[in-house]
Write a structure and sequence with these properties.
By secondary structure, the chain is α+β, with helices and mostly antiparallel strands. Among the domains are: 115 residues, Jelly Rolls (Sandwich); 83 residues, no CATH class. The protein is 19% helix and 37% strand. The strands form four sheets. The protein has a five-stranded antiparallel beta sheet, with no helix packed on it. Strands 3, 4, 6, 7 and 9 form a five-stranded antiparallel beta sheet that branches. A four-stranded antiparallel beta sheet has the order 2-10-5-8. A hairpin with a 5-residue loop joins strand 13 and strand 14. The relative contact order is 0.18. The model has no long low-confidence stretch (mean pLDDT 90).
Length: 313
């Protein structure tokens, strides 16, 4: 068995707090109190600006149901608005949200509202815009369902516990996480499979000699990374061989890599449904429930069996 350890924990769960609440039918008693509207771009007449240079304020939307509105007023003659949603994990590095571009606004379709749902997994969103031809009146709002249920912390714990359970059954990494594997020796073949697929990238391969001297292999020069197959693997580059060395007595080889499903490689729906079943069961049954728990476990394990990949030798 190739031993490993999760060295950087999951930040973004594959099931959001909002999705869990919808699944267990937690509906707010006063919808107006649970909706919060933030101005990303303040209302007003905005002058010509190129290359999406009008940068809206960002909003933390992690785990919340999020709607983004583009509120178009009057575009002066020849004026137009191009706006889109951007997302970020750190509120510093931004990228365009796929499907987040609004229909360009001109005099032909101004004085209207466009709405888009943000269903990405990053923490922050904002709206950016280009104004061309002439000044236009508009604004952009980010609306979140921000109900602060007293049991949110408990539900988040159940989400993490459900992911942990499903990961142990399927042997997959269900969300992005950094893992360090500890082979006791390099393989006799020219490749090495890594635990907990899917593999995203390999950060480093280090090995330590008996005297404590550590060396690092170089990707593309010494080895190649195959992240296309079900089992991610490290393959020796052409003409290369694994290092020959006298190993350090403890953890002589360390392979650090990033694994897990992501926004561009979504968790299997069967596994996600298994998580939701567990979350719902744990929410409504705070204590052991005998036969009912057996039925739940059977349903969950049946779903997970379709995505189980087994262990490593």
């Amino acid at each position: 068995m190739l031993d490993y350890n999760v060295t950087t924990q999951v930040v973004t769960e594959p099931v959001t707090l909002a999705e869990a609440k919808l699944h267990i039918r937690l509906s707010p008693d006063a919808p107006a109190d649970d909706l919060t509207t933030y101005q990303s771009i303040a209302p007003g007449s905005h002058a010509i600006i190129t290359d999406f240079g009008l940068l809206g304020s960002s909003v933390d939307v992690l785990g919340l149901i999020t709607i983004v509105n583009l509120n178009a007023g009057t575009c002066e003659s020849g004026g137009s608005i191009a706006a889109k949603i951007q997302e970020s994990d750190d509120n510093a590095t931004w990228e365009d949200y796929a499907g987040g571009a609004f229909t360009t606004v001109t005099a032909a379709n101004d004085n209207s509202i466009q709405k888009k749902t943000y269903s990405g997994s990053m923490r922050y969103v904002r709206v950016v815009a280009t104004v061309a031809g002439n000044a236009c009146e508009f604004s952009a709002d980010i609306v979140v369902m921000s109900s602060d249920y007293i049991e949110d912390t408990a539900i988040m714990g159940q989400i993490k516990a459900a992911r942990d359970y499903c990961e142990k059954i399927t042997w997959r990494a269900l969300a992005t996480q950094t893992i360090t594997a500890y082979p006791t020796r390099f393989p006799s073949s020219n490749e090495l499979e890594l635990p907990r697929p899917p593999l995203q990238s390999v950060t480093s391969i280090k090995y330590k000699n008996s005297d404590g001297t550590e060396a690092t292999l170089t990707e593309t020069t010494d080895y190649l990374v195959d992240d296309e197959r079900m089992f991610g693997r490290i393959v020796l580059a052409y003409g290369k061989s694994w290092p020959t060395f006298t190993p350090y007595p403890m953890n002589p080889i360390k392979i650090e890599y990033v694994a897990g499903y992501s926004e561009t490689n979504l968790i299997p729906e069967t596994t996600k449904q298994a998580m939701l079943i567990l979350i719902g069961h744990w929410y409504f049954n705070r204590e052991p429930t005998g036969t009912a728990s057996g039925y739940i476990a059977s349903s969950v394990n049946s779903l997970l069996s379709m995505d189980k990949v087994g262990g490593w030798v």
